[in-house]
Amino acid sequence: MKRESHIDRRRFLQAAGAAATLPLLSSCDQPGSGTNRPPGIPLSAFDGDSTALEVTEGVDLSGKTVLVTGATSGLGLETMRVLALRGAHVIGTGRTLEKAKAACGSVSGRTTPVALELERWETVVSATELIRTLGMPIDMLICNAGIMAMPTPEQVYGIEKHFVVNHLGHFLLVNRLLEQVKAASQGRVVVVSSLGYQWAPPAGIEFDNLDGRRGYEPNKMYGQSKLANALFSLELARQLREAGSSATSNSVHPGIINTNLGRHFDAWKRVLSKLIGWTFMKSVEAGAATSCYVATAPALAGVSGHYFEDCNPVVPQPGKHMDDLALAARLWQKSTELVGEYLA
């Protein structure tokens, strides 16, 4: 039944004009996407139609602490809802404390609201200092928040905004809380990347154009930040392994979902997604599944440094820098320089 539905979506896209619909978010059902698997990594019975509730069924998270960024709507809210339902204490962040409180109050289970605005690094410092006072290990740190397709270039700290919010804010957050993740019995960092990594510039990361003023294109800047997410996760996994830590780090592509992430799209794209998005977009419940699976699945306890789509490990498209260890190390060094005064 699921296979037939998958075929129907493809046929509908062809009939409706795939060229008009695919640019809405990132690549969808592209040939070769999600078909190559890294050797030795356990496969799940789940797929792109599975929901966060389904992939966590039977998982008891009592006594576990989870941090989810961007928990006030969309995938972050669903991730928080499901993990709290499974017994975890979820720290849900929002751009304001009021929004975080409202989101936390809307779900059942134990939650703690925290104000965190990724483009304002002093709020990252304040949030992490508050979280440290809770005095508990962090079993799962899910870097979910993000922005996409800013129509005109914006700079924060002299750096292009996609790169600041999607990558550097999370880089700072994770590094300031890394000791608490390592203190967990098996801490996990899950970084929400995107199939949009394919839109990154040919060099992968344009270190000489981090302000984005040269040749600004919304998708390219988004793609660069999503590649940065995956490279950050890759280098973090290497460092954790080298340090002998049991903590892991993996990146995920949640799928194409009609959430607030697309608020900067042209009006026609937003209208089109509402009209026919059901033919190729995931529900929020399915979109949160891969993050929840990677964060909780017992089978992945020792798995680190990989990229997941549809609740399974995937070998990213070759030639797009996703496995570039040298680039990942260089990005880590540059990121450390950029946020250095906030890291201490």
Structure, explained:
The chain is an alpha/beta fold. It has one domain (2-18, 44-339): NAD(P)-binding Rossmann-like Domain (Rossmann fold). It has helices at 2-16, 18-21, 52-55, 74-85, 97-105, 121-133, 161-183, 218-242, 267-276, 284-287, 289-296, 325-343; strands at 65-68, 89-94, 111-115, 140-143, 155-156, 159-160, 188-192, 248-253, 307-309, 312-314. Strands 3-2-1-4-7-8-9-10 form an 8-stranded mixed β-sheet, sandwiched between helices. Strand 7, helix 8 and strand 8 (248-253) form a beta-alpha-beta unit. Helix 6 (121-133) runs parallel beside helix 7 and helix 7 (161-183) packs parallel to helix 8 (218-242). The termini are far apart.
Tally of DSSP β-strands: 10
Strand order of the largest sheet: 3-2-1-4-7-8-9-10
Approximate shape:
globular
Give the helix tally.
12
Reported for the largest beta sheet, the result is: 8 strands, mixed
Quickly give the structural class. Answer: alpha/beta
- Percent of residues in helices comes to 40-55%
Q: CATH superfamily, please?
A: NAD(P)-binding Rossmann-like Domain
